[in-house]
Structure formats: C-alpha cells, structure tokens
Amino acid sequence: MASIRRLKKDIDYLTDAIIDDSLNCLAYGKDVDDISKIVEEALRVKGELRQRVNSGRKVKKEEKKTYYQTIRKELWTSVNSTFSKLSDLVKQD
Question: How many domains are there within the chain?
Fold first, then answer.
C-alpha cells in the first residue's frame, strides 16, 4: 500500500491537473459557467477526500488498508468522470 503522504500528493496533483485543463478550455473560448462548475466539483471532491484521509487515524488498524484503497478508487473515479466532462465540453462547438 502506498503511503498516506503519497495519497495526499496524488489528490492534490490530479485536482491541479483538472484545474489546469479547465483553464486551458477557457483559453479556447469555452463557457465560463460550465468550466466553473467543473472546477468547483473538483475542489469539493479534493476537500472531501483530504478530509477522509486525515480522519483515517480513527479507523481500526485492520480496516485501514481497505479504507485507503476505497479513497484511492473514489479519487480515480472522480478524476475520470471530470476529465470526461471536460472532453465532452471541448468537443462541443
């Protein structure tokens, strides 16, 4: 299992990648409202996941591995869906 520090870095890095790509979409003239919804969702998910990682200290030792694996899976699911939304937005004329 990866370290908790690494998980936090992954959350930050992937969220920053979403925001960077969203800003690139703005440079190409996409709607500000659509982009802002995507960025707000990414920041909300980032806050929730970081909160859950930080509260992992309260989880029993036997359950920690699956607890952090669940957070990692939710991170990847969220990132994939957000990038799909950005991709669909870029494809629109």
Answer: 1
